[in-house]
Design brief:
Helix content is 36%, strand content 13%. The protein has helices at residues 30-42, 57-60, 65-80, 105-111, 124-143, 173-183, 200-206, 255-272, 298-309, 325-341, and strands at 2-4, 17-19, 22-24, 48-49, 148-151, 189-193, 212-219, 244-249, 276-281, 315-319. It has an eight-stranded parallel beta sheet with strand order 4-1-5-10-9-6-7-8, with helices on both faces. Strands 2-3 form a two-stranded antiparallel ribbon. The longest helix has 20 residues, at 124-143.
Length: 343
């Protein structure tokens, strides 16, 4: 399996994350991608490619133009306003307030964000664009005949809405890849999100559509980020009714239980008959992950990969979460190796 990776991910190297009232070292850091890349090389998984350049056209098919423009200039405007730290939102649209885009940079940061967990600094824009190009290059490989490809995206993407960043995500890489398949004539595409956290951005982007099936297995949003989306009664609206599936689990869930939801998801995908599959690959379901509460073990990811391969679909893997840096490489590559071993 070919892996697509961009060294430009290192341009995103923020120093702060707001957690529990403290500014801490971010959980989402460059060593995550570097550890996965090292494991890909160690296991001789396949050729490693740098991404092609696609410009902003494919990104604009998923994200709004005013949001993209904001991300491109946010850091420079922040610095020009005399701010001394990294960009961290402190104001949001509350209930009863007007939904309008302010002129002031503080107001616009809040307008386009969903939380204070995700800082922005110099280099975030370049890294986010490179991450989207990684996903698009993997999609191009699969559309060109590869059985599967691994987009080693960083920053991740599945929390990003059409006009919101948060959860360490800026551009929704899985959604951008899915839309690229659609724009190239694929009639139906499925996205299966196996990250611990709900793929709220992906759900929101396709919630009114029947051409992209979105499925997410995740921790109970009553207890875990993103809190305000991801419940099982969210099944789609309008043309999208019945084309969104959320499978929710409580703290302590092991693979033996989690895999039942995976089987439900696979059966739904089979019934949908997609022409391509996107796997939003998060491995923060791991038992030692510092910001999650499932109990999957490293060996379980081999089994997960094998089950995905049994679907028999052209498949793009986009890297999402996973914050136990010591284990992330083994766990992510186990999924890919499990996928390859099922033949």
């Amino acid at each position: 399996m070919k892996t697509v990776f961009s060294p430009l991910h290192r341009r995103r190297a923020v120093k702060t994350e707001l957690d529990g009232g403290l500014l801490i070292e971010p959980h989402e850091k460059p060593s995550r991608a570097e550890t996965i890349l090292a494991r890909v090389k160690d296991q001789a998984l396949g050729e490693i490619l740098e991404p092609d350049e696609f410009g902003l056209g494919p990104v604009k098919r998923v994200h709004t133009e005013d949001y993209i423009a904001f991300l491109e200039t946010c850091w420079e405007e922040w610095v020009a306003a005399g701010k001394r730290g990294e960009v961290i939102p402190t104001f949001w649209i509350g209930r009863g307030m007007r939904h309008r885009l302010p002129t002031d940079i503080d107001g616009r940061v809040g307008y386009f964000s969903m939380g204070a967990d995700t800082s922005i600094s110099d280099g975030t824009w370049e890294a986010a664009c490179a991450s989207a190009n990684v996903a698009l290059t993997a999609q191009k490989l699969v559309a060109g005949g590869e059985r599967a490809a691994f987009a080693l995206c960083r920053p991740p993407g599945h929390h990003a809405h059409a006009d919101l960043f948060g959860g360490y995500c800026f551009f929704n890489n899985a959604a951008i890849a899915a839309q690229a398949f659609r724009d190239q004539g694929y009639e139906r595409v499925a996205i299966l999100d196996v990250d611990f956290h709900h793929g709220n951005g992906t759900q929101a982007i396709f919630y009114n559509r029947s051409d992209v099936l979105t499925i997410s297995l995740h921790g109970d949003p009553d207890l875990a980020f993103p809190h305000f989306l991801g419940f099982e009664d969210e099944t789609g609206e309008g043309n999208g009714e019945g084309y969104n599936l959320n499978i929710v689990y409580p703290p302590g869930t092991p693979y033996s239980i989690w895999s039942r939801g995976l089987e439900t998801a696979c059966k739904r995908i089979e019934a949908f008959r997609p022409e391509a599959l996107i796997i939003a690959l998060g491995v923060d379901t791991f038992e030692e992950d510092p910001i999650s509460f499932f109990k999957l073990k490293s060996g379980d990811y081999l089994t997960l990969g094998k089950r995905i391969e049994e679907l028999g679909l052209p498949t793009v893997f986009t890297m999402e979460g996973g914050y136990d840096v010591d284990a992330i490489g083994v766990n992510a590559v186990n999924v890919l190796q499990g996928f390859g071993s099922a033949r």
